[in-house]
Amino acid sequence: MYDFNYTKPSSIPEAVQALGADMEAKALAGGQTFIPVLKQRLNKPTVIVDLSELGLRGIAADDKTVTIGAMTTHHQIESSPDVQRLVPGLAKMAALIGDTQVRHRGTMGGSLANNDPSACYPAAVLALGATIHTDHRSIAADDYFQGMFTTALEPGELITAIEFPVAEKSNYEKFRNPASRYAMVGVFVAKTAAHGVRVAITGAGQGGVFRHTAMEEALAKDFSPEAITGIITPADGLNGDIHASPEYRAHLIGVMARRAVAAA
Amino acid sequence: MGFEGIGASVRRKEDHRFLSGRGSYTDDINRPGQLYAVIRRADRPHAKILGIDTAAASAAPGVSAVYTGAELEADGVGGVPCGWQVHSKDGSPMAEPPHPVLAIGKVRHVGDPVAVVIAATRQQAKNAAELLVIDYEDLPAIAAVRDAVAAGAPLVHDDVPGNVCFDWHIGDKAIVDAAFAQAAHVVELDLTNNRLVPNAMEPRAAIGDFDRSSGEFTLYTTSQNPHVIRLLMGAFVLHIPEHKLRVVAPDVGGGFGSKIYHYAEEAIVTWAAGKLHRPVKWTCDRSEAFMSDAHGRDHSSKAAMALDAQGKFLALRVSTLANMGAYLSTFAPAIPTYLSATLLAGVYTTPAIYAEVKAVFTHTVPVDAYRGAGRPESAYLLERLVDVIAHDTGLDRVAIRRLNFIPRDAFPYQTPVALNYDSGDYQATLKSALAAADWDGFPARRQAAAARGKLRGIGISTYVEACGIAPSKLVGQLGARAGLYEVANIRVHPTGSVTVLTGTHSHGQGHETTFAQLVSDQLGIPIDQVDVVHGDTAKIPFGMGTYGSRSLAVGGSAMVKAMDKVIAKGKKIAAHLMEASVEDIEFKDGRFSVAGTDKSKALAEISLAAYVPHNYPIEELEPGLDETAFYDPKNFTFPGGCHICEVEIDRDTGTVTVANMVAVDDVGRVINPMIVEGQVQGGLAQGIGQALMENAVYDSEAQLVTGSFMDYQMPRAHDFPPMITSTENTLCTHNPLGSKGVGETGAIGCPPAVINAVVDALRDYGVRHLDMPATPQKIWSIIQANQPRMAAE
Amino acid sequence: MPQVSLTVNGRSHTAEIEGRTLLVELLRENMGLTGTHVGCDTSQCGACVVHVDGESVKSCTMLAIQANGAAVTTIEGIAESDGTLHPMQAMFREHHALQCGFCTPGMVMSAIDLVQMHPEGLTEDQIRHGLEGNLCRCTGYHNIVKAIAAAWPIMHGKELPLAAE
């Protein structure tokens, strides 16, 4: 790892200022993706801005929304009774990320800011139509994801919280990459008052997370596995690697979607 | 204190330190004033080195030195030697191209070391290594053996035509051809044995140290055999005489073969310590290990069996292409030949066998022994072939094995491929395994699985392997450049406690316990009075190390021989002290007694007399009670057994789940059943790993695609069911313990059982064979491509 | 250089470190606590697992400076002061759940956390999935699973309600 300066601001404005003051400054959330990247010397930040003391940890819920602080860990999300009750698919997803030790450190905000194409959370955010709150604005999920490792965040902009609508139905099925354990195909199905039925796919698309509109239309009429059994997902635009060809990924999208619907 | 002798599951002596974080692995050692070495490796498979600009790296903060192959060559540093010479069919010796410690002129695989940077901190060395400017001219490269032998293939070494290292054979071709001509059936099978990365959890590390006052070098290294490293590195690479070179292998965190070999980094840190007069430490990153630790397997074979009308095997013909990688690793040439083709009789009476092995250079990491080392390849070939014979002829898989087994009363049994099996009972291990796996109950389980939408299959493998490779005279004739005996020193201290110095090593097998148990049992003293020392050439007289499941069968036998000497001398001392005739002295349960009397002396009394020889037969006998034995076995040992695997396949995703894994192994006499069971379980995990998960993948340009744990699937806890293991114990007839070896049985017998089960699960899809690993994608593709021939039940 | 102050195995420790220093490097190189191991560079093997404020984490994937003010427990700190092994250590020995010992410290630290996180009980399947982040190459995990199941009743002072199937 290259050396860097380290700072741990205690307020959001200070953090934003630290990140804005230096083009090569990087924010450190849970670090479970970022620190391995640093160890491989794939990134050479001048300043690391540790976000752990900005008060961004915690989960708040009412009868319409669940709001999760950006620095809330996967472990906190998976074990939150509110998340388990109001958006069970999200709690299940958090429990399927990495391993216990990664879940103790990794955060939702960090994952969403990075927008790895095989990360899990983008599928939940997109399918549930969540809202990304930052230090100075709110971004709708539909506007947030802009291709792999690319988001609507401006340089230096910090995610503060993610607001999820309470879901009528939500579930996540993940087929892990056998080696890395990231999502090779992850399918989140959701039904919410505001957005109806949505199906979001992660791990599979070359451009990162995407919605499966053919399945959404079918499920809107009949929320059952049978309703999507005949839907063929085109392999075009899907990733291929030694573990899964685009065709295999396309097939797995169907399988995972049916399983997610069946148990939603 | 409970019974702690032979046959007891004594809890391990080494565990307390490992469980408390007080193990001492090589990377845990730091020497005063030590510097850190980082190696810059080739990022491309094949290229001319046009130039290396070291100026910026040399000037970087903290850097003590930057060395390239040129500096080492100029200083007379030799290449990494190969320890085994195989001859081709025509009698010519194998091609043995130079293997420089740091590349000279060309790089030949991704990971080939090009330069070393030595700096005050590891991070400084890493920073500086990035500043090296290497000017390459890329050349075409090949990774697969079939590509390497194709006409016009790029050459790995300019003076090795066709990339063929050797073209070897064994057996009688004429007899085999005649048998094939008369066969009722001939069954053919092409198969590959997938390339694996050993991935011991402890990455390799090495520290070189030089004592200016004594002129002695010390190398601390992650090695399974420090004496062999001292011999190879001292004599061939650095030209340091043995008395000036000490090699210490402290606690070693797994090896599975990959830490047998002498590696370039060991020579680099030792040489650099001599140059810089400072200790130099190198620790391998995991991703670096993927491209620098010797890989395993990577054979591609064509096999054919000739059968009579009843299914008796008449003759076997095998032709194998074996990937050596870019250079010859220490024992590489022996793996596909003397450790694999010689096992092609398996447990069967096949009267005629002919095997050809063409060893091939490619632009890949060198390949050498990995847990099983040649025997998994032959067991897989044979046990897959037997199942395909059953498939093609309609004969029952178990019946055809029984029909062809070498019977229990046929031992010693001479195979047509050189080996002479001393003992075994294949019907017994088969019977036990069939019972443990409830073989007869399988159809019901298959039906139940089908009702759940799952495809269930069962597979069997009956195997034999060869351990404790020996005797030295024979292996010398076969091309080994070393002896394969083992050394033990039994040092009885004046007050009766014992230090055992052994030339084997442990990288997880629990030798400190098993050997202490053996000595405790034989000398009749409590186990806590016995300590085992290994891994230091300054302490142990000599040794050949640990590999090929040899430690107990060979190293333990050496201990028995040394203890025999201790007891023989003890009897003379006892006879003197008790004024009796030596012939009348008996030794039992730690006491020397005069037959027919109540006179006796404890071992501690005898040892005290030996070291304080006031009342002692000093005219006839030297003082002291410290005996050494070099034991050279008469033959290999031959563990064998039966493994049965049951799998379930998720038709929708292609995922294979191991539902049941049974192993019944005949390992001869067992000293510690708990440790033996653990060895089998670990071997099974690596066997299942090979069959279902692990695969070292190179792309068509010879880039390593699976270069880290992000791409190479390591087996995890949830990949396995509980394992059902047991042993049968026919004794080895030619060593004093009757033990055969257990370290590799799991990895040898298991992979064909797993694939046989997968093929069985897919029987309605017209599958005859599939290559390892049976990944979800592969199974899904097969299911997609083949409509079921009939509805499953 | 930044300064880090933390408690390790009950003892406070302060050091000047580079920002990039990993927690595992602080433990191994600065404090000589070499029981915590490094087995990979992709945060997967778990040989480096320690407890930070009671939670198991990978010390190779955490900057030392992030542990400022935290209480860290390593494999060296879980036995009693008189040397009596922690129940998890004792059960690993009793059930032969270690061979080469290299993954063992991380495995034990993960296992302790796993048992602590599940006071309601643990099935064999939960134990196996709970070891997602720890690789062992020697044991085939069989005896590790047995050891953890055996440690649960000792650590919780009651019988394991959900028997390992």
What does this structure look like?
The complex is a heterotrimer of chains A (264), B (793) and C (165). In chain A, 34% of the residues lie in helices and 23% in strands. Chain A has 264 residues and is α+β, with helices and mostly antiparallel strands. Among the domains of chain A are: 1-52, Uridine Diphospho-n-acetylenolpyruvylglucosamine Reductase, domain 2; 168-262, Enolase-like, domain 1, CATH 3.30.390. Chain A has a five-stranded antiparallel beta sheet with strand order 4-5-8-6-7. In chain A, strands 9-10-11-12 form a four-stranded antiparallel beta sheet, with helices on both faces. The longest helix of chain A is centred in the last third of the chain and has 17 residues, at 246-262. The N and C termini of chain A lie far apart (43 Å). In chain B, α15 (511-523) links the parallel β20 and β21. In chain B, α15 (511-523) runs parallel beside α16 and α18 (673-693) crosses α19 (745-761). Helix content of chain B is 28%, strand content 23%. Chain C has two domains: 3-76, Beta-grasp domain (Ubiquitin-like (UB roll), Roll); 87-156, [2Fe-2S]-binding domain (DNA polymerase, domain 1), CATH 1.10.150.120. Chain C is built from five helices and five strands. Chain C has a five-stranded mixed beta sheet, with helices on one face. Chain C is of the alpha+beta class and 165 residues long. In chain C, 32% of the residues lie in helices and 14% in strands. At the B-C interface, α1 and α18 of B face α2, α3, α4 and α5 of C.
